[in-house]
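To fix ideas at the outset, we first show an illustrative case, written as a sequence plus integers encoding its fold:
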Amino acid sequence: MNGRPSSTGASADSSTDRSVDAATDTADRPTALLVVGTRPELVKMAPVCRALSDADWRVRLVHTGQHYDEALSDTFFETLGLPTPETNLGVGSGSHAAQTARTMVGVERLLDGSPTTDANSPADADPPTVVLAQGDTNAVVGTALATCKTPVPFAHVEAGLRSGDRAMPEEVNRIVADQVADLLFAPTDEARDSLRREGVADRPTQQVHVTGNTVVDACLAHRTVAERESSVLAALGLTPGEFVLATIHRPRNTDDHPRLRRIVGALDGAPFPVVLPAHPRTRRAMESAGIRPTGALRVTDPLDYLDFLRLLDTARVVVTDSGGVQEEASALETPCLTVRPHTERPETVAAGVNELVSPAELAGRLRTVFETDAESMVGATDLYGDGRAGERIVGLLSAAFGVDSGRETTVSEVTE
């Protein structure tokens, strides 16, 4: 891989030469530092983590603490095949600027060997071979900005997604992370083409690869396990194919109380059961707006991964504003209605398995899809890959850093 040219002068900038080749001799065994901040990031990074371990990489998993709560138990990590994070950066809640800044400081300390805010964090004087982050959260942009000012290369998993909506903080995070990344793993050709349009793929210091999305890896790996081990259907009194699953958590939908009332009203007025595992943001917003469902809608606490996967796999329709759920629904052949004006997963809309709807349209469209259109909104299971994205990503990492992973890597590559 072509890294950035090393500075030949004695300026301070020479300390931040980010040639990938320069990182290969940090240790005999390559080390990947994986930084995550939310539950979806853990789910999507798990296939990469497992593939790294299988390829004899040393894995260091770090949680920023953005969504670190009691639900993230040892069982959660065991279910996904993840090690317990070696440290929690303690980022917590706060404004976008505060979360990003705390992440930057924490990651910088990890990379230069300084103590972190976590007293239990092990000392590690040697920098990692590469830093990876996934998706579009403040954890990602903070990690990207901190890493790009060091000699350690940064790899962005799920690169190139674009909704065209700069009002979404996640869109800004994606753009910034992609601009400074050294390796970019795009889930689809369309994501790669977005990077091309932005000029990212034309730079000799960056590599762009189409790998598929690791969320499909996670879905397919745990689908049978969820069917066997989850008892959520019985616990909620649900019959496969006869209910709707809903997830609503975007600030656009929760912070605008009239909008939230329309969404909840559409779900609560349905002539079939609707289950909403409530994100804390959603529950607080409903309480603040005085919204109390009394009809078809059943609001539950957040579910563990296997229970949620089981509901998504057996629902007649899913209503969501989540990007990841749109991908999971296509892989599991569950028709999807997305309550947003834009999506960074346009492949699902083009394939006819996902529709963008407004709160005003939701009630009517949900009933029509449930009763008549559901069968026509399935069949595009391979939009985001075949369940081997994690293996491909690790094969590419191993190739970039001269590691014999024992894996054949067959992916698209864009370099000039």
In short: The first strand starts at residue 31 and ends at 36. The first helix runs from residue 39 to 54.
